[in-house]
TrEMBL record:
Keyword hit for Membrane: yes
Transmembrane annotation, as ranges: 12-34, 41-59, 98-119, 126-146, 158-180, 201-221, 233-262, 304-324, 336-354, 366-390
Keyword Disulfide bond attributed: no
Cellular-component GO terms for this entry: plasma membrane
Species the sequence originates in: Massilia polaris
Gene Ontology BP term (one): proton transmembrane transport
Domain Cation/H+ exchanger transmembrane: start-end pairs: 33-362
Pfam families registered for this protein in UniProt: Na_H_Exchanger
PANTHER family: NA(+)/H(+) ANTIPORTER 1 (PTHR32507), NA(+)_H(+) ANTIPORTER 2-RELATED (PTHR32507:SF0)
Protein name: Cation/H+ exchanger transmembrane domain-containing protein
């Protein structure tokens, strides 16, 4: 039967053709949505659901694993852009505003832990999941901001908060992973496991400094003009990602640090964003389609688990809004908008970058089901809520794009 199918439609057996067809479908649907004032990137979500495991089944985890490096590169561009938009000087001088962004990230983790523990998830597993839930998704926030051409004080604060939350989550993930690994009989103990996790962070930072230094030296020695530097920077980013992958170091921290260095250490004109906007748009669509293709709708069929996942989403938005009470720099309207736009959650795979299709090993069945439901809702509703948050902040400028 498979030979007969191959004769009729040989492209069905080409993984690259399937991905290309999915991206084309995503663009067609996305343009239709954009013409009605809706987020264009939801076209990638719909296309992913149609061709993925909940639809035709043409795209699944084994097929996507063949393009792991491609997805890693797309994620790397997003994480670099998150770091590039973090303004360390503003965070240091802003006082209560910067502190409220840190507080919001911490409260999201504590509130998530309380919800999971109340549901009966073991404390160790609840703590591990709560650490991941500290952060908002850099992919969702950056893509929705780019899709709606958003700019303004709320978007600026949100971009900084995404970076802060991911750094906090990454730092907290070290002890959490060490604790999970310690349960393995072959483990060397919490101290040894924690040391291993911290060394990955340190090595990621060293790789970032080395790659950025190489980029800075190369562009200055050659006196490369602004229009040629983006290509050299992209080469340095790929070197960074590759070195982190082969050494097992923290790619997320390394790529964020690369972005931070470009914004806060580079004094020359930067045209990186303008030069690679088309590539980033394709990367966003690819990542959205990949995530949607792996969503199993039946994961949302358990009423109790679905209720918990929805509760966590609402609680994270609520505590984020509470954290902004002490700041007087933003109006109540802006604070509400920022809280909604920070609703998304990051996946464990995005935090690790070089294993974005990986699973949550070590979690029990109940915790794994909760994670699956959270990630499914994250793909289906978080982009819309993020887009709506930017919209109600009054900072979207689609008509100018």
């Amino acid at each position: 039967m498979s030979d007969r199918i191959f004769e009729l439609a040989p492209w069905l057996f080409s993984p690259l053709a399937i991905i290309g067809a999915g991206l084309l479908l995503a663009q067609l649907i996305g343009l239709g949505l954009a013409s009605r004032g809706l987020p264009k990137l939801y076209g990638a979500v719909i296309a992913g659901l149609l061709v993925g495991v909940s639809g035709l089944g043409l795209v699944d985890a084994p097929l996507l694993s063949q393009f792991q490096e491609l997805f890693n590169a797309a994620t790397a561009l997003v994480l670099f852009e998150v770091g590039r938009k973090m303004d360390l000087q503003w965070l240091w001088n802003s006082g209560r505003e910067g502190a409220s962004l840190v507080l919001a990230s911490l409260l999201r983790g504590f509130a998530s832990f309380a919800c999971l523990a109340a549901f009966g998830i073991p404390s160790g597993e609840a703590a591990f999941i709560a650490v991941v839930l500290i952060a908002a998704s850099p992919i969702i926030f950056a893509s929705m901001a780019a899709d709606s051409n958003a700019s303004g004080v709320a978007t600026f604060a949100g971009a900084n908060m995404v970076g802060i939350g991911n750094v906090i989550a990454l730092l907290a993930l070290g002890p959490a992973l060490a604790w999970m690994k310690m349960q393995d009989p072959a483990s060397n103990g919490f101290g040894a496991e924690l040391g291993g996790e911290l060394s990955k962070l340190a090595l990621g930072a060293v790789i970032a400094v080395a790659c950025y230094g190489l980029y800075a030296v190369a562009t200055r020695v050659t006196r490369a003009p602004a229009r040629q530097r983006p290509g050299m920077l992209l080469a340095a980013l790929l070197m960074d990602l590759g070195l982190c992958s082969v050494t097992g170091s923290s790619a997320l921290l390394s790529l964020l640090l690369m972005g931070l260095l470009l914004r806060n250490a580079e004094k020359r004109d930067n045209v990186f964003q303008a030069q690679l906007k088309t590539g980033q748009d394709i990367g966003y669509a690819l990542l959205f389609m990949m995530s949607a293709a792996l969503v199993e709708i039946q994961q949302l069929m358990n009423p109790a688990v679905l209720a918990l996942a929805l509760l966590i989403f609402m609680v994270r938005i609520g505590v984020t809004r509470i954290a902004f009470i002490g700041s007087g720099a933003w109006s109540a309207h802006k604070k509400n908008a920022m809280a909604v736009s920070m609703c998304s959650l990051v996946s464990f795979g995005t935090l690790m970058v070089d294993n974005s299709l990986g699973t949550y090993s070590g979690l029990g069945p109940a915790a794994a089901q909760v994670i699956a439901s959270l990630l499914a809702l994250n793909v289906l509703i978080a982009p819309a809520l993020t887009w709506w948050g930017l919209k109600i902040a009054g900072e979207t400028h689609e008509e100018e794009d």
